[in-house]
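Model it.
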Amino acid sequence: MDSVDILMSTYNGEKFIEEQLLSLLHQSHKNIKIIIRDDGSVDSTREIIFDYMDRFPGKIEYFNENVNLGSSKSFLRLLNFSSADYFMFCDQDDVWCSDKVEKCLMKMKEIESSCEKGGPVLVFTDLKVVDAHLNVLSESLWRTQKLDPNIALDWKKLLAQNVVTGC
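Modeled.
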């Protein structure tokens, strides 16, 4: 079974990180490791992560370098800690559907089978927009923001209009 590292940068995420961790730990694809790099949180984010590390031994790796790099650099730094067959970026304030990893992995493998061996593959998904209590505000961010995900099929167009969601 292919291994997947889920890379999460955290910063003062105490309000939502527990729900996200639970959604990751209950994925239908089981060969995952969650790799977290904290970017200098001053709330209880780290304590929550440590609690989940104790409750789910071997499923979560944590790195705290006591340096605030900002979101983009923190995610780039996380790439250095990944050794899985595949990796996925993950925001701390999301909640993933239980089959997200499985479906994304299937799509990556499908695209790989039709591409040059070793070439890069990018898979991204739409998302539901929800409030703090997970009440659905919109079934599709793409429709809400009038984004056309097919733009991503042409990398030149993608450079001009990014339709890739943050997570």
